[in-house]
Amino acid sequence: MNPIEQLPQYVGDIDGHSEPRPFRVALPDGLDEDSRNQLKDHPAIVIVDDTTQAQAMIIRSATKFPGDDNVTSKDGEKKFADHSNLGLIVRSGDGHDNIKKPDASDHGVATVNTPGISARDVATQATAFILDWARHTTRGTLGLRGQEWEKKRLKPREIAGMTLGIIGNGNIGKETKKLAGQFFNKTVFFDTDTEKTEVETIEKLLKQSDVVCIHVNGKMEILTPEMLAIMKPNSLLVNTSRGTNVNEEALLKRMNDKDGISYATDVFCDEPPAFHNPYAGKDGDPTVTSIINHPTNFIGTPHISASRVGNQQDLGRVAVARILDYAEQGIINPEDVPGHTFSQIGLGEKKSEGARVMFVHESKPGILGAISTTYGTHGLNIEDSRTTDGTPFLNGTKAISMLDVAGDPQEINRVTQEIVDLIGAVRSRVMLYKKPDSQTGSTSSSAEAAPVQPDSLKGPDSHRQPQGSPELVTAG
To answer: Does residue 462 have a pLDDT over 50?
Structure first.
């Protein structure tokens, strides 16, 4: 028989429990059918509706962890304190600023996203906006719908002699250059990474660009009133990044100026926008409403750039792969994506039966030694181990220690709980592995049972929850 088939398989977590329990995953923002079935059909994974019971979660933009002190009554906002079992959040998509990393770190929650998959789709949206602006497609359509023949008024723009400026030389920025750059005489990048930038400042980019595209990470205001004032007359600003990247009041003023700029966007500060219409009883945001209703200088879509059906399947496939990495082997951030609570950590594929144990704890000397000594005192052998520090925050730095431990699973389980108290672990996992031909009795039936219903999963796994929410020192 193929030796690979005899490798032990993950059958569930026994952290603080007498029998292995299926790994629990929540999908509050939904998932495409194929990806969902991949989780549903896994013998040691169960999908739960109650997010507070989940050990891992796949989210998109609707679900947010803004920090426990910042949670409001808005739909989709969640507290880490209410999710005491949660060890991993997978943000399906490029952006991940709907998770406050200091709070995630403080509660021992690893984060990861699926970057690059939507890059071509977002770049395509930006390119479509540019061509729409150049050829007056939307405005011409609206004119015809209003029974207006604007042949003499709408003159297509010649962009072959123009300069395209791109703020952000990442995956999406590069794709935008490939797709849209071919229509322009010149493309120029600005990036905070000195090795990726082609101009020293955003100001220099704005002064020479006829079309400006924003492709950045984070919610910071990039196009401030001062920056918008620098933009060339009759230029175009394309935003497929974040609504908050552009100062809306200053934007509206520049749109209303003589020879004012045009604005094309797929994103808004609030989604959906707070439309203002006092005649219809809507007391919303008059600024964003005036931007959208601008008669000549606005093109927009309702945040659809990454919503292509095939794109959702691609995102789901990678998001599920990150869940399986963590559920089956304890692997976190395998592609070492920057900006998350922890960098890459893992011990690789488990080669022998027994347990793999994970602790999330404060980063300080002596922790791994204390763990090893305690297991050794109880006659348990450590086959492999690794400790990795997480991203530093003002409230401290968390670390993850991962160990393969040989011995009786229940003794490992018992000693692990002792170590949790000894080192003040924020979170722990004990993952149980059995070879296929030895998965008999209660262990096998627990792993292969019908999906566990939420009511049978009450009670948190073993870990501690610290207090307080640190502020970010580095964004990674």
So the answer is: no
CB neighbour list of residue 185: distance below 8 Å, 6 or more residues apart:
160, 161, 162, 163
Per-residue pLDDT at 446 exceeds 50:
no
Residue 327 placed within a domain: yes
Q: Are residues 81 and 35 in the same domain?
A: yes
Among residues 278, 300, 322, the one where a domain terminates is 300
pLDDT digits (tens, 9 = 90+) for 246-270: 999 999 999 999 999 999 999 999 9
- ∠ CA 70-47-450, rounded to 5°: 155
CB-CB contact of 269 with 219 (8 Å): no
| Cβ–Cβ < 8 Å for 198, 188 | yes
**Does residue 282 share a domain with residue 160?**
yes
Q: Grade residue 5 by pLDDT with cuts at 50, 70 and 90.
A: low
- Supply the pTM of this predicted model: 0.80
Residues 149, 294, single domain; the answer is yes
Give the CATH number for residue 444.
3.40.50.720
For residues 156 and 23, membership in a common domain is answered with no
Q: 415 pLDDT exceeds 60?
A: yes
Task: For residue 11, tell me if it sits in a domain.
Answer: yes
Say which range, 106-120, 349-363, 392-406, 446-460, has the weakest mean pLDDT. 446-460
Top pLDDT among 167 and 217 is at 167
CB count in 10 Å sphere of residue 190: 25
Same domain, 77 and 133: no
Same domain? For 290 and 318 the reply is no
Final residue belonging to a domain, choices 277, 300, 323? 300
On whether residue 476 sits in a domain, the answer given is no
Paired tokens of 451: 């999906």
Burial 80-109, CB ≥16 within 10 A → b, else e: beebbbbbbbbbbbbbbbbbbbbbbbbbbb
Residue pointed to by tokens 């707070």 = 274
Domain-embedded: residue 470: no
pLDDT computed for residue 79 by the predictor: 96
> Alpha-carbon distance 394 to 406, whole Å?
37
How many Å apart are CA 208 and CA 224, to the nearest integer? Answer: 17
Type of residue numbered 30: G
Counted domains in the chain = 2
Q: Is the pLDDT of residue 460 over 60?
A: no
Integer Cα distance of 86 and 51 in angstroms? 9
Nearest-CA neighbor of 407 among 437, 432, 443? 432
Looking at the fold, whether 280 and 337 belong to one and the same domain comes out as: no
